[in-house]
Design brief:
Blueprint: E1 3-7, H1 18-29, E2 32-35, H2 44-50, H3 52-68, E3 73-76, H4 79-94, H5 96-107, E4 119-122, H6 123-132, E5 149-152, H7 165-168, H8 172-179, H9 203-219, E6 224-227, H10 230-238, E7 250-252, H11 253-260
Parallel strand pairs: 1-2, 1-3, 3-4, 5-6, 6-7
Helix pairs in contact: 1-11, 2-3, 3-4, 3-5, 4-5, 6-8
């Protein structure tokens, strides 16, 4: 069994059922994530804007910790962490002066960073590979009446890392859910920005952005939304409070996959959602 170096990120533990559902799905599917020892915040997107050298040092330390533990790949569950680590990796690999500057700062902490930096993957891609490799008999239909799920990736999963149509309209999660027996709807809001951390200081402007996403999914027949990012989930979940229409539940993709794997809703942290999801199995017979 492959063990992946895991960078949880700062929001993972407090997110509404994300940790519970990731751990439950990992146990069921035999996926092993080993958290990096003494990991630090990656700085998210803000650190690079304020001081690039500090942002690179934060990410460089994470790369050094992964290398020290023998991991050639880092897996994260957060879009901001994912894009920040990829951005730092690109800078450090292409600019020797920046790499040397980070190396000197880390040496002061007793850490050594090597030029062959670890790859960076989103947990969605790990899960996608796992589900794709499952025998057909294990890909049974979902026992819950989720007939129309609107997938929301957020703006940092696919751009600028993917090219062509996949950058604007990725299909990775739709393929995973449909393979697990969960129907999805086709819509155009999957990679629109929800406002991220600006949703608090700029609530009015971000409220418009959130409303646009929810209305598009609802207009295309979506009955609930599922996402892959803690900030996206919180914004769409909390941001519908005063929208004036019936709210759509907003889950983590791991919670829906957990239900499809017949994991109990309580073990997936579904009770932590602000907009409740009625997770009741279909009546048979």
């Amino acid at each position: 069994m492959t063990v992946h170096g895991f960078f949880p990120g700062c929001a993972y533990k407090s997110a509404a059922g994300y940790r519970e559902s990731v751990e439950a799905v990992n146990t069921r599917l035999g996926i092993r994530l080993e958290a990096l020892d003494d990991w630090n915040c990656c700085g998210a997107t803000a650190a690079f804007s304020l001081d690039e050298s500090d942002g690179l040092a934060l990410c460089g330390r994470i790369f050094a910790l992964a290398q020290k533990a023998g991991f050639s790949r880092i897996v994260t569950v957060c879009n901001a962490c994912y894009t920040t680590l990829l951005k730092a990796k690109k800078h450090l690999e292409k600019d020797g002066q920046k790499f040397d500057a980070v190396s000197r700062r880390l040496a002061g902490q007793g850490l050594d960073i090597k030029a062959a930096l670890p790859d960076v993957s989103h947990y969605l891609d790990v899960l996608s590979d796992t589900v794709a490799a499952m025998p057909p008999a294990e890909n049974h239909g979902c026992g819950y009446p989720f007939e129309a799920v609107g997938v929301y990736y957020g703006c940092q999963y696919s751009r600028p890392w993917l090219s062509g149509p996949a950058a604007q309209r990725p299909r990775v999660l739709e393929d995973v859910l449909e393979r697990m027996g969960i129907s999805t709807v086709d819509h155009s809001a999957g990679t629109l920005c929800c406002g991220a951390s600006h949703a608090v200081p700029y609530a009015d402007a971000c409220g418009t952005m959130i409303r646009r996403i929810v209305q598009e999914i609802r207009a295309k027949g979506g009955q609930l939304i599922t996402t892959i990012c803690p900030m996206c989930q919180f914004n769409l979940d909390a941001g519908q409070t005063h929208q004036g229409q019936a709210a759509l539940p907003v889950t983590y993709f791991t919670q829906l996959i957990g239900l499809a794997l017949d994991i109990a809703p309580g073990a997936l942290g579904l009770n932590k959602l602000l907009i409740p999801l009625a997770a009741e199995k279909k009546q048979t017979g």
